[in-house]
Structures are given as C-alpha cells and as structure tokens.
Design brief:
The chain is mainly beta and 132 residues long. It is built from 2 helices and 11 strands; from the N terminus they run H-E-E-E-E-E-E-E-E-E-E-E-H. The protein is 8% helix and 42% strand. The strands form 4 sheets. A 4-stranded antiparallel beta sheet has the order 1-8-9-10, with no helix packed on it. Strands 7-2-11 form a 3-stranded antiparallel beta sheet, with no helix packed on it. Strands 3-6 form a two-stranded antiparallel ribbon. The longest helix has 7 residues. The termini are far apart.
Length: 132
C-alpha cells in the first residue's frame, strides 16, 4: 500500500490509532476454524488450522519514513492465582506487504474526507404484494 494513503487512513505518521485488522500478503497467522475439544477417554478431536494473512491489532502506528507499521496485540490471561495478566505482542510490518485494513464501523471514512454510506434499508414491498 502507498505510505501516503496509509498516513491519511491512520490519522498521520507516528500516531497510534484504534483497533483494526491488518491484512497482509503472506500467511502470517494460523487460526483454528473452531474450538479444540478433547473427548474424555476417547479419540481426541482438534479443529483444523488455517493459515491467514490477518493480524488483529489493538492499536497500530505508522512510521512513514521507515516504511513500517507497528501493531500491538494485547492478550488477557489469568495466572494460577487468579490474577489477570496482560501480555502485549509487538509486530513490525513492512508497508509493502500490507494489502488492506478492516475497521469496526465507518469512522475512518471521515479521516479520508469521504461521507458516510447510505443506510442499509430492508426490502420494501407495496401494499398488497404477495411475499414468500
């Protein structure tokens, strides 16, 4: 992706932005298609693993001059004593390998100067129209 476009999309160089999914052109991550389950006393069944280029980041930062994106993932875990621990993972991504981004909601459109999309309307039927 173009670093200038990324700078506009992410709100500027060297600014942290909200959560998003960074889509890469490589099989970066391995996701399971469902929960693993182990049957007691019987055969063990595991969900299949699928390689994917999706990096779910809690926050990202563009370093335009260096041509990289810093992505932080936070994982919440309870230790043996019941204390909640937060582990952070930093991933450094070359902007040349970024294919796209996914955001929850349409807020990034305002940063790009694009208006909000029209609302999605349910199907409308005229009175007396038979449906089904």
């Amino acid at each position: 992706m173009d670093a200038g476009f990324l700078e506009r999309l992410l709100g500027g160089s060297r600014l942290w932005t909200g959560p998003c999914v960074v889509i890469l052109d490589a099989a970066f991550n391995v996701d399971s298609t469902g929960p693993d389950s182990i049957v007691t006393g019987g055969q063990k069944a595991y969900a299949p693993r699928v390689p994917t280029g999706r990096l779910e980041a809690d926050t990202v930062l563009l370093l335009k001059d260096e041509g990289v994106i810093l992505a932080i993932e936070q994982h919440h875990q309870k230790d043996g004593m019941g204390q909640m621990r937060v582990k952070q993972r930093l991933t450094v991504v070359d902007v040349r390998h970024v294919v796209g981004f996914e955001f929850d909601g349409a807020e990034p459109l305002a940063v790009l100067g694009v208006g909000a999309p029209p609302p999605v309307r349910d199907s409308e039927y005229r009175p007396g129209t038979l449906v089904g």
